[in-house]
Amino acid sequence: MTPVWAQFPAPPAGGVDLNSGRLAAGRGRGRRARPPAKPTPHWPNGRVNLGPAPGEKGVWEGNAGSTLATNARGIDNPLMNLPTNLKVSEVPFQPWARAVYDYRQSTTTKDDPHIRCKPSGGPRLFHTPYGFEFLDIPEAKRIDMVEVGGPHTWRTIYMDGRTHPKDLEPSFFGHSVGHWEGDALVVDTVGFNEKFWLTREGIPHTSFLHLTERFTRTDYDTLKYEATIDDPGAYTKPWTGGWLIQWQPDQELYEYVCQDNNRDPKHMYGGPRF
């Protein structure tokens, strides 16, 4: 059977505006100029709307090439990464964690659990192809995140002020509680298992991971994602990285089945792409 490879989107024509954290409008070689984005949408109560405006549709793009730290051998969409990101050499790895990262890089990330149809937790969730959306359910005081390429997974963020339960059973997505800080959704998550990679290029973590994420819709077309990694099992101190995520208007999530015959020859076997 012919292997299947996700087609990753190209970086935006204008790149990242270093002052605003927005995607810059502009024209790249062979690309159309992007029109200026509309303002950040809000609900009647003033809270940010993380989805489409009423009567419209759309999803957030999965930026497959974005990452938390600059990869020395290059990645697919470097213009999406935040300008404040660390270089890999600056990440406060413990020695064993750096060795694991280097091994995953040297083997072309062929052991990535995601390409074997395992769920992708933490930041890995947001650079997975085919997109994702937020389902804000105020009457239930929670926000659900649904994505296609995870494979077809969802994550619940509790917005009712609860704390994390004790003695959590480790899971791919952990236990998430959220709150609003101005226009930013801040999500605190613990209780991760160690069965996934923290990022696509192989940044490791342990079950001690305490993840803090900030989702800021800086304009209609741009979601700024920032993740702070506090994992004393793998790092000597907390560190932060992130990227910008583009809005895909008029798109909807669709059925995607991750199955044994979906192969990524480059990353699973170190072979060429088909």
Molecular structure report:
With 274 residues, the chain is mainly beta. It has one domain. Helices cover 6% and strands 25% of the residues. It has helices at residues 95-106, 265-269, and strands at 58-60, 69-70, 86-87, 132-137, 142-147, 153-158, 175-181, 184-190, 210-219, 222-230, 239-249. The strands form two sheets. It has a nine-stranded mixed sheet with strand order 1-11-10-9-8-7-6-5-4, with no helix packed on it. Strand 9 (210-219) and strand 10 form a beta hairpin. It is globular and about 50 Å long. It starts with 57 loop residues before the first strand and ends in a 5-residue tail after the last helix.
Topology:
Elements: E1 58-60, E2 69-70, E3 86-87, H1 95-106, E4 132-137, E5 142-147, E6 153-158, E7 175-181, E8 184-190, E9 210-219, E10 222-230, E11 239-249, H2 265-269
Parallel strand pairs: 2-3, 6-7
Antiparallel strand pairs: 1-11, 4-5, 5-6, 7-8, 8-9, 9-10, 10-11
Q: What sequence of helices (H) and strands (E) makes up the elements?
A: EEEHEEEEEEEEH
By secondary-structure content and strand pairing, the structural class works out as mainly beta
Overall tally of domains: 1
The number of helical elements comes to 2
Q: Hey, roughly how much beta strand do the residues contain? A: 25-35%
User: Which parts are unreliable, with pLDDT below 50 for 5 consecutive residues or more?
Assistant: 1-14, 25-31
Distance, first to last CA = 11 Å
**What is Rg?**
18 Å
**Strand neighbour order, sheet with most strands:** 1-11-10-9-8-7-6-5-4
Task: Describe the largest sheet.
Answer: 9 strands, mixed
Query: What percent of the residues sit in helical stretches (DSSP H or I)?
Result: under 10%
- Report mean pLDDT, rounded to a whole number: 84
Number of strands: 11
Shape: globular
